[in-house]
Amino acid sequence: MIGPSMSPEIITILALVAMFVVATVLPVNMGALAFVAAFLVGTLAVGMDADGILGAFPGGLFLTLVGITYLFAIAQNNGTVDLLVRGAVRLVGGRVAAIPWIMFAITALLTAMGALSPAAVAIIAPIALGFAARYGINPLLMGMMVVHGAQGGGFSPISVYGVTVNGIVGGTDLESSPATLFLATLLFNLGISVLLFIALGGRSLLGKRADDREKVKVGEHEENAERLAVRGHGSSAYSADQPGSEEPPRGFRFDQAATIVGLLALGVLALGFDLDVGFVSISIAVLLALLSPKAQKGAVNKISWSTVLLLGGVLTFVGVMEEAGTIEYVGDAVAGLGIPLLVALLLCYIGAVVSAFASSTAILGVTIPLAVPFLLAGDIGAVGMIAALSVASTVVDVSPFSTNGALVLANAKDVDPDRFYKQMLAYSGLVVLLGPLLAWGVLVVPNWL
């Protein structure tokens, strides 16, 4: 029972735990629970008004999820996604096992060149998960390869994360090594991806190739295109020799050409000119809908509204937690322990747990300054600790409550949404549990950096 003297920080923590328990036991969207908790806790315990609570609503993430899923729903309807799938598989010579690694490499390259991690994942995840659905690749494997690729390239000296961390460290007397930070985070995510590939069926893909002559189901209709279907995985095949079979027209259509131009424009404008990916994607989607109204039929219904509700509610509640001072409260309690290695481990866990729900960039801006005082004492290597904090605070972006994880969840194809959500939740829980410990054990304890 909550007593009248219980602090707002403790109340928010208890409310967060209660939400997880209820959403796990009952089939209630956690986002809806979180909105209720944000209202009750924010009003009764934190002293916030409705405007203050709604000020924490992640409007940018809402627009990104809606815009991206709307755009790729149109691309799926008009067959453009299938064209991209065929072209990308040809690039790897039909080697199915290479596809997840191609997605990892492309996403890592984009973030290493300075792209925001969510922007890169927003562009690559729908295509990658299209591969997974069509070629019998575990969607969890494919989605997590994209996210780990984004985090692997995310700490280059010209990336957003890299600039943030190096800027903070550069303002102190701590030793700094941007190249070491980049390589440490890249190799850590690469190592996790290797384990994922082995654990989630990657070895079964070795030796499998694609057949570009099999006729299979494409999107919401059947199309006799030169589809690349995986041998041994089966497909929704039909035969032109079967009675009643009808071949849709072949060829490269105007709406597909316009969609490809739109996707390229999304990449150029969002990554090259740093324009908001949500506004850009929904603008392109609306333009495509105007150019080809039939192609966008039903596309709005394919927007992942349950995911939008989930993320909107949870992140609004996180905003209430920040207003209550919960994050600062926990950080101060940990830093006061006075045992350097233990403080380092707990800071890694704080960064991981909070970042699983909130902005990784913001969390880096909180946890690294908290680590500076005891790093200046010289008991722990500063470069290794900074790298460990960076890994711990970003590797958990596989969480379905983070922007990257939400994009994977929203774009998964041919899966049971509830089951896939629970798989992502289980994996992200494992990452939150073991990721900080591994980062601490590899990068901090040996004191070699």
Automatic annotation (TrEMBL):
TM helices/strands, residue ranges: 12-41, 53-75, 96-113, 119-137, 181-200, 258-291, 303-321, 333-358, 370-392, 424-445
Domain Dicarboxylate carrier MatC N-terminal: 6-154
InterPro entries per UniProt: CitT-rel, MatC_N
Official protein name in the record: Di/tricarboxylate transporter
Keywords assigned: Membrane, Transmembrane, Transmembrane helix
